[in-house]
Amino acid sequence: MAIGCDGKIALVVGGTRGIGRAAALALAEAGATVVPTGRSRESAAEVSAEIAKLGAKTLPLAFDVNDPEASAAAVDEVVRQFGRLDVLVGNAGISPYWKRSEQITPAMWDEVMGVNLRGLFFCMQAAGRHMLGRGSGSIIAVSSVTASVGVVRGLPYIASKGGLEATIRALAVEWGDRNVRVNGVAPGYVSTDLTHGLRDNADLSSTLLETIPLGRFAEPAEVAGMIVYLASDAASYVTGQSFIVDGGFAAGKLTVRKNGRPA
Q1: Where would one find coiled-coil regions in this protein (predicted)?
Q2: Is domain 9-255 given the CATH code 3.30.70.380 in the classification?
């Protein structure tokens, strides 16, 4: 079966930069109508303009994923404009702190969990309610390889992504009987705004690259390809999974010594 999304209606939450933007453009190239969202309508409109240049239908939306009512309203608007929603890409996420676990405060924890786990769940719920009524749909949540392997200075981001992957499995089991598929994509280190500081630190970057068998950061488009596959009918029997796209990082962690350097 060919991997394509002709005629599908896709909502990409957090679709204005990085992996989300790449996913929005890749879905459009695969034939989908794509609605990118961001916190500002201006940023969403910029991506919509790129999508329109590809010849795809589009609509920019702005809302805060922290607000469940706003998420539900966004889904309702997509359905009102296009008649249905076939695909949700949940890409909204933050990682503002690079601190050791003993330094994490309740406010830091709540801020990250509010977006990465609570916010995304209620967005998935809103999309799922519509898809369950139609008896069809694909939800793809962007997780992280760090949900599977430990890294230092990663909490609460890691915990939020671990919780997200548990949510993916639970929803897949609950919703599979109504033909709503729920999967995750777990990127490794990608050239996005979130890794800007790391990539600019020569020592940290060099040490990290030694642990990635492919020896480089991913480009956002390399993660978007997996998202398109999971959105397509080629993945019609795939649900409850989280696919690691990390250049071999997780596999390489099996040979890492306690000092964090390859054995």
Answers
A1: none
A2: no
